[in-house]
Hints:
The protein is an alpha+beta fold. It is built from 5 helices and 6 strands; from the N terminus they run H-E-E-E-H-E-E-E-H-H-H.
Amino acid sequence: xxxxxxxxxxxxxxxxxxxxxxxxxxxxxxxxxxxxxxxxxxxxxxxxxxxxxxxxxxxxxxxxxxxxxxxxxxxxxxxxxxxxxxxxxxxxxxxxxxxxxxxxxxxxxxxxxxxxxxxxxxxxxxxxxxxxxxxxxxxxxxxxxxxxxxxxxxxxxxxxxxxxxxxxxxxxxxxxxxxxxxxxxxxxxxxxxxxxxxxxxxxxxxxxxxxxxxxxxxxxxxxxxxxxxxxxxxxxxxxxxxxxxxxxxxxxxxxxxxxxxxxx
Length: 264
């Protein structure tokens, strides 16, 4: 199958550029994803630390009756609905305090992107695992991701022993992060496609111009073969200076001059 040389060179150049763009795009996306989730984890752990250092856990008598209504923690992040929800539970996983919006008509407390009601605890499996690990002297904090009402929710669980054993869970939806990453992926794909289109067009024009000397040599040789007229010469159009192809055309003209002398 015949494929013109300019097309082959252009396709090869575009392929190399596409591989480079793919590698660069994946690297940018991975770094953005890693940074977004690292910032989310840091925010969750800092909110838990603010509760651990707050007044609620300073006194052993804070909400001693699990059957009573849980205490209301202030919205530590000050973002209201859509921010980070916090739950404080005892070692039996009874809710002691929360910032979650337990009343759908009350929008003064932090919930997770209108996920009402909030589960208690946010991640029961992680809560039981963490309490078991803590009783065995292992780690006292962990991160987990759950799916709740169709959304991925990032949960940070930690143990506090300032008074008695308390479990603190902070949670935030990953929906905004996922949307941002989706937008970034779409931007990288569209940008990469646009760059490849310009690269293909530019590469085709560049190779077509570079090989113009070869086409002139071919036409001249074909004309001489038909007419047996060695007085013909390859037109010189060295607009970009003297390069290897221009030298080739000049050498070809010198050869034609020699053949013309021999013929005469």
